[in-house]
Amino acid sequence: MPTAAEREAQAKAAIEAAKAPPVEDFKPSSLNQKGKDFPAVNSERRIRARVVAPDAHSVALDIGAVKYPLTKGEDGAWVGASIPQDAGFHYYQIVVDGAQVPDPNSLYFYGASRWGSGVEVPATDQDFYALKNVPHGQLRETPFYSKRSDAVLRCFVYTPPDYEKNPAKRYPVLYLQHGGGEDETGWGSQGKTGLIMDNLIAAGKTKPFIIVMASSYVPGAQMGPPRPPAPAAQPGAATRPAGAGGMPRFNFSAFERVLLDELIPFVDANFRTQADQLHRAMAGLSMGGMQTKQITLANLDKFSHIGIFSGGSIASSDITDIDGFKKSVKLVFVSYGSRERGATGKTNVEALQQAGVKSVFYESPDTAHEWLSWRRSLYQFAPLLFQE
Amino acid sequence: MPTAAEREAQAKAAIEAAKAPPVEDFKPSSLNQKGKDFPAVNSERRIRARVVAPDAHSVALDIGAVKYPLTKGEDGAWVGASIPQDAGFHYYQIVVDGAQVPDPNSLYFYGASRWGSGVEVPATDQDFYALKNVPHGQLRETPFYSKRSDAVLRCFVYTPPDYEKNPAKRYPVLYLQHGGGEDETGWGSQGKTGLIMDNLIAAGKTKPFIIVMASSYVPGAQMGPPRPPAPAAQPGAATRPAGAGGMPRFNFSAFERVLLDELIPFVDANFRTQADQLHRAMAGLSMGGMQTKQITLANLDKFSHIGIFSGGSIASSDITDIDGFKKSVKLVFVSYGSRERGATGKTNVEALQQAGVKSVFYESPDTAHEWLSWRRSLYQFAPLLFQE
């Protein structure tokens, strides 16, 4: 992890590099509000923002941990561009005289513990999450009562395109978790889960299944530090006590209980699921991956397929009964962006393979701890599910 | 309609009145982001905003057509309060040195042609849209292909709580339209349609039915002026040519074709509907009410129940064949907020009653052209539907 001084130096270098005139082939981001031409992205993957702030003294585009100063034009609009960004989705914000605010031009997404701006940089493989004229599933906003929280919570449930047509057909279920500072909207919105699944199903590449996306922030329960550090590739990191290796201990038990005692029974009672271990998977990104690891390992009678995206991995030492594990678990899938530290994850996957566990490692090219890594991970993971 | 000078005078008076110290019993708005204490509402229904903008020279709370200047505190946060607002939902924004931006503290809603802040003032009757532990329906984000637009569009479909349980049961359908500058998210979000219906159904006050919420802004089609003026209570206003009476002509025909030729067939093919005129209703607010009037009157073989919320009314002179109308139409419902000009609507409803048409007029107390008027309208309208 870079130090504060290193980050500051990187930011200064980025601001300097951003002074180079960009190639003038900007196109509006696909995540802009109707009729808005900015932010825009060029062929260098640089982002240009434009913000009307006639009386401001300073306006910045805050993206990728760099605050790029914008320049005021005669029309009162401030304009400027970043250095090249990775392909895919990026959270960002605008800073107007010290006020950190959403860009009025973009759509909004929940991440970094707030609703804020998002910008999309085209990717060479973006076709797999494109909006196409294929049969579409439905993303259902589904309230459910949690006795533990004494509150009505909300999850989003993706049902595949043929769900309405076959009233007798039952489906496997994937429980798919967001990352730290995100919520139940993340996978459906930033993650483009519905589009990814619709396209995979239309191409016959995956078995249709239901996806349940809930928030792991259970009301009234303290999970751990509000900003989980980027997970290093340390197996079992979530369970080490603070101080030993420096990783704070997360307590996912409140969500584990809501998931197992309330959400899964609710889903099985209200959707046509195949309600058994063989047909139930869990996956998650970042903190959601850590939760997936912790919860599945403690409940192998409930989950048969495990996906950990940028959230650690399962080491042989995490498994107490390898024979039981091999019987129960049909898949362990571990993924990272290429710019993350996936080496230990890869090693752990190979060790599981050698132990006879079906285990897959995937590395997303040229991406970091960001949503394109996770869209691609879902795209790779889904076709492997429920094959037995 | 007030003149520009009148509006400016009203704004000045409001800013002056807002200098009076508020009662210090502020509570956070129920539409704030997680963990945010502002904006907050007190027992006088005044709204207090707090925005961190350390280097700004001026920050304002822009609500109800008044820009209230906020005052900077020593902590760099700007604070201030409005005069009392009506009960219910209000769009608003923050202005930081001339930059019109969403408040980083609130949730966001699509209205006034942009995603922006919303604040909720408690209402004495708010129980009917409260989130309760009753059986809940699902709000389904549903893509559908429009050949006319050559695009995949999106609608939201509310299915009632027992929809999943009764695979043989079929349901009537209400097509429910948003207002100008809004979209397909309005009724489900600002309108709290799901909660209103869940509560009515739990109380046995309405027949369960499906609600389809689509955007009437068809891609590529020009509907009319981007900012429809507040509809005066003029019957048939939507069809008068510009110049005659001053009301610009709206052209809803593109949406009419998408609705009739594409959306209704899609809904009937993909949901368990009772796909006939007797079991199909249409309603809308403001511009959506104008569209409802225009489209239903031209297609009485398709719709049997009509709801126009703050969007005009049906005069006897709008009906060419009164006997046919009385046979086809089971309900004409017209509503206004008490602060709007509903007199002509009321008169028109009475005339229809005298002609033997089942017609209902509803006035929402102490509300203007705003969402509480329309939540209440839906709450009054729903129990009257599909009674035959």
Automatic annotation (TrEMBL), chains A, B:
Name of a matching Pfam family: Esterase
Coiled-coil regions listed in the entry: none
Low complexity compositional bias, start-end: 11-20
Compositionally biased residues, Basic and acidic residues: 1-10
SUPFAM superfamilies named in the record: alpha/beta-Hydrolases (SSF53474), E set domains (SSF81296)
Gene3D superfamilies per the UniProt record, alphabetical: alpha/beta hydrolase, Immunoglobulins
GO molecular function: acyltransferase activity, transferring groups other than amino-acyl groups
Annotated stretches, region: Disordered: 1-39
InterPro entries noted in UniProt: AB_hydrolase_fold, Esterase-like, Ig-like_fold, Ig_E-set, Mycobacterial_A85_antigen
Protein name (database record): Esterase
